Amino acid sequence: MIEVDQLTKRYGPHTAVEDVTFRCEPGSVTGFLGPNGAGKSTTMRMICGMTPPTSGGATVGGRPYRHLPNPGREIGVLLDASAQHAGRTGRETLTLAARTMGVGRERVAAVLDQVGLNDTAARRRVGAYSLGMRQRLGLALALLGDPRVLILDEPANGLDPEGIFWMRGLLREFADRGGTVLLSSHLLREVEAVADRLVVIGGGRVVAQGGKDELLAGAGTLVRARDAHALRLTLDRAALPATAGTDGGFVVRAEPGEVGQAAADAGLVLTELRPAGSGGLEQLFLTLTAGASTKEAVR
Ligand SMILES: Nc1ncnc2c1ncn2[C@@H]1O[C@H](COP(=O)(O)OP(=O)(O)OP(=O)(O)O)[C@@H](O)[C@H]1O
């Protein structure tokens, strides 16, 4: 179990993460989703004791990361696949880590096999690895201590479609055996395919969280009016929480009837009014990523 409680991180006047609270339960994969710069890495680094929070805290299995006597045996972490010593071979990297963690050498062969790095790859220096191979080695390091919890920052980066499919299977199996997985991505589709729960972060704050199916299904009402500005004012006046899309529409966290009534009371002409459905989360995510590569974000 991972518990994140009101985590906040400020760098001078800049707030990177603000009041972030969520939990990841055993037996589930939690997708931590947000555009570049949203605060995913900073949150994960705070959970793993690498960045001290300005306020709030996080525990893994009931204890702060720094209080775990042998963290690698309890939590597998992949935060930066390029962090490994370029001059060592993959096998040396794992053997050294196994010694530090106090796990048997047989785990090295087991995890190399698990992540699909063959003998030739294991004997090659990490400096000569492709990004995809580094991600596999990073995952091998995370799995080495046979932990119950995995915390992975953008693990699919650099993997080809087959590699991404393989990784999803690995994470699904890990969770199905009772493990807890937190993985981040800036791609909605990538996380949607494997996660049970989603935590969506934008501008350092959690903007949505819940079960994936619930978030994808009950994502409010999509509404559009001839006069988008008047609609915004009407929604604000009626205290209906709305997120503006990039195309003039709004996703409102309320029933269509309630939204329609507010518009009718204000004498507005609506051009669209319907349950947002799966488009709701997509719309919310597009709004967050507006200005960034929006097409890529929902790919
Ligand atoms: N050491 C630091 N000093 C100052 N600002 C920082 C530092 N680390 C992160 N930030 C800022 O905090 C914000 C959140 O960054 P973070 O790396 O956590 O986002 P992210 O969601 O992981 O994005 P990405 O996918 O691009 O890594 C950004 O505005 C970033 O510039």
Automatic annotation (TrEMBL):
<dbReference type="GO" id="GO:0016887">
    <property type="term" value="F:ATP hydrolysis activity"/>
</dbReference>
<keyword id="KW-0547">Nucleotide-binding</keyword>
<dbReference type="InterPro" id="IPR003439">
    <property type="entry name" value="ABC_transporter-like_ATP-bd"/>
</dbReference>
<keyword id="KW-0067">ATP-binding</keyword>
<dbReference type="InterPro" id="IPR017871">
    <property type="entry name" value="ABC_transporter-like_CS"/>
</dbReference>
<dbReference type="InterPro" id="IPR003593">
    <property type="entry name" value="AAA+_ATPase"/>
</dbReference>
<comment type="similarity">
    <text>Belongs to the ABC transporter superfamily.</text>
</comment>
<keyword id="KW-0813">Transport</keyword>
<protein>
    <submittedName>
        <fullName>ABC-2 type transport system ATP-binding protein</fullName>
    </submittedName>
</protein>
<dbReference type="InterPro" id="IPR027417">
    <property type="entry name" value="P-loop_NTPase"/>
</dbReference>
<feature type="domain" description="ABC transporter">
    <location>
        <begin position="2"/>
        <end position="228"/>
    </location>
</feature>
<dbReference type="GO" id="GO:0005524">
    <property type="term" value="F:ATP binding"/>
</dbReference>
<dbReference type="Pfam" id="PF00005">
    <property type="entry name" value="ABC_tran"/>
</dbReference>
